[in-house]
């Protein structure tokens, strides 16, 4: 579904990725673990088209996404890739429902259809009683679930999550794990998750270990 081949990336004189090969299949929940600085987030950003590799390629369903540029790339990302970060990055001036809808509005989808899907997702994620609240009126766990709904609104091929439970307590982290798996069961949703959370890594379908810029 998504493949990276011989991915290299340096920041200045620091060679962060040293020829990474990776394949993720549809419907898999895959974790990436490894020491701080081993290149996990850098790899996630490159696979997610937020950053460019110095060498190597990324393909998604046989489209060479590492060679897309400008508007083409932004449109591809918006339609095919969802992101969840440690800090949810919800827009403070918009309600939970609006935050979820925004990526779909940007993709030019019809307002009514988008609102319906957003409500449905927020219900699946158990935050439909908070539709009109602003992010600062939600708990950390609720904010993160709204961020997951936002990541899913455009029915992406894959969701990339960078330390999604890093800012949550154990109970909320566990709930988020359960959610990832129920979303996989329900929508055959694919996830690639960078995590230090051993429990999440242990229950994934596969765990990839990164060390010194390589998957080992
Ligand atoms: N934009 C950047 N500019 C310069 N150096 C960077 C940049 N992004 C990452 N680095 C460096 O690249 C290396 C790998 O960073 P990366 O964030 O990928 O590691 P990580 O494995 O995700 O670490 P952590 O678990 O601490 O988040 C680190 O040494 C980091 O300081």
Terminal Cα separation, in Å? 21 Å
Low-confidence stretches: none
**Overall 3D shape:** globular
Averaged pLDDT, please?
Answer: 92
Domain tally: 1
**Bound ions, cofactors and other small molecules, one mention each:** adenosine-5'-triphosphate
What structural class do you assign from the helix and strand content?
alpha/beta
Strand order of the largest sheet: 6-7-8-3-9-10
User: Could you state the CATH homologous superfamily?
Assistant: P-loop containing nucleotide triphosphate hydrolases
Described by strand count, sense and barrel closure, the largest sheet is: 6 strands, mixed
Total beta strands: 10
Order of helices and strands: EEEHEEHEHHHEHEHEE
CATH architecture: 3-Layer(aba) Sandwich
**What's the assembly state of these chains?**
single chain
Do you know the CATH topology? Rossmann fold
Rg for CA atoms: 17 Å
What percentage of residues falls in helices of 4 or more residues? Answer: 25-40%
Can you tell me the CATH class?
Answer: Alpha Beta
Q: Which percent band covers the strand fraction?
A: 25-35%
Q: Total helix count?
A: 7
Describe the structure concisely.
Helix content is 38%, strand content 26%.
Could you explain how this protein is built, in words?
Keywords: ATP-binding, Cell membrane, Lipoprotein, Membrane, Nucleotide-binding, Translocase, Transport. Helix 3 packs across helix 4. Helix content is 38%, strand content 26%. The relative contact order is 0.21. The protein has one domain: 3-Layer(aba) Sandwich (Rossmann fold), CATH 3.40.50. It is globular, with a radius of gyration of 17 Å. A 6-stranded mixed β-sheet has the order 6-7-8-3-9-10, sandwiched between helices. A 4-stranded antiparallel β-sheet has the order 2-1-4-5, with helices on one face. The protein is of the alpha/beta class and 216 residues long. Adenosine-5'-triphosphate binds next to strand 2 and helix 1.
